[in-house]
Amino acid sequence: VGGGHSVQLLRDLQRGSTFATCAVVNRETNSCAWPISQPKPENAITIAVSSRVLFNMEREQQIYERQGMEEYLKYQLEHESEPFSPGPAFSFVKALEAVNNRLRELYPQSEELFDVVLVTNNHAYVGLRLIHTINHHHLLIERFCMTGGNSPIGYLKAYHTNLYLSADSAKVREALQEGIAAATMFTPEKMKEVSDIQLRVAFDGDAVLFSDESERIFKAHGLDKFFEHEKAHENKPLDHGPLKGFLEVLGKLQRKFFHKGLRMDCPIRTYLVTARSAASSGTRALKTLRSWGLEIDEALFLAGAPKGPMLEKIRPHIFFDDQMFHVEGAAELGTVACHVPYGIAQRLAEK
C-alpha cells in the first residue's frame, strides 16, 4: 500500500475488512509511502522481524491467549496511542541502521543496505499502534506486513529474506524448512547494554554456520570418536548450516568497509563461539570458513565450557545457537540469544 492515504486505509480496515495488509511506514508524516531511495528487495539484505521481538508485547499476548481475539483487539484499540516499549530485537535493528548510515556515507548510490521488514500475523486493527510505535522510537522501518493470522512465510520468500527473527518457534521451523535463515528470539530478564556504533553478531558453529554432520558423530559415538572423525576429515570442508548465508552477507558488507581502508574501524564485527576444542577439532572449522571465502573476526573455542560468561564480555547484539542450554545460559547473563531449531540435537530433544 503506498501513498498518503494509507493511515486512513488502516482505519477503514478496522471497520470491517479482514484481509492481509502490507504497508510502508513513513515516520515523519505518520503515513505510508514508498520512499524514493528504498533499495529493491533483491539488492538489499532483508531482515524480517516479528512485532513480538521488536517490541515488548507480552501483556497483549497474555490477553490474546487467556481471553481470545476479540478482547485482544479491543485492548489494542483502547491503547492505540500508547507506544510499545522496546523488545529483544530493538538494539539489533538500531545497530543495522547505524551500519546503513556508514554505508550511505561511503557508497551514496549503493542499494546494498540492510532493509528491515516488520512482519506480523496481527490483524490490521493493530496497524496504527505499530506505526505509532515505529515513529515514536524513530525507527527507519519502511516495509510493514500484516498477515491477518496467516503464515508470513510466503511473504518472506517474496522479500528475498536473509534472516527471519520471531518469538514463534513453529514459524521459525517453517521458515527453515523453506530454506530461509531463521531463529527463535528470547528476551533476557535484564539485557546488557550493547554498542550503538558497531553491530556485533555471534554464531555457534555446528548446526548453525555448519551442518550437523560432526554433531551426529558426537551424539552417536561419543567425544573420542568425534575427535577422530574431525582429525581424519580436517581437510574436508563441512557442509553449510542454516545461517551460513547470513554470515556471507555480513562479510560482503564488511568488505565494502575494508576496501575503503576501514578494516580496523568496521561497524560490523563477527564472532564464532563454539564448544569445540581448538587443538582437537578447531582446525576443520577454520578451514571450512576459509574454503567458503569467509572471514570471522574472533573465534572462541571453549572446549565445552559455558558460553554465557564469554558472551557477557563480547556483548553481541545477537547470538545464535542450536542448543537451548547455551541459549538459556547466555540469556541468564543478559545476552539476546536466539535458538536455531536445526539438526540432530532437535530430534534428540523431542525424544
TrEMBL record:
UniProt GO molecular function: 5'-nucleotidase activity; magnesium ion binding; nucleotide binding
What is the top-level taxon of the source organism?
A: Eukaryota
Mark the transmembrane ranges: none
CC terms in the record's Gene Ontology section: cytosol
Pfam families xrefs = 5-nucleotidase
InterPro entries in the record: 5-nucleotidase
User: Which GO biological process categories is it annotated with?
Assistant: adenosine metabolic process; nucleotide metabolic process
What's the protein name?
5'-nucleotidase, cytosolic IA
Protein source organism = Hippocampus comes
Q: What is the lineage of its organism?
A: Eukaryota, Metazoa, Chordata, Craniata, Vertebrata
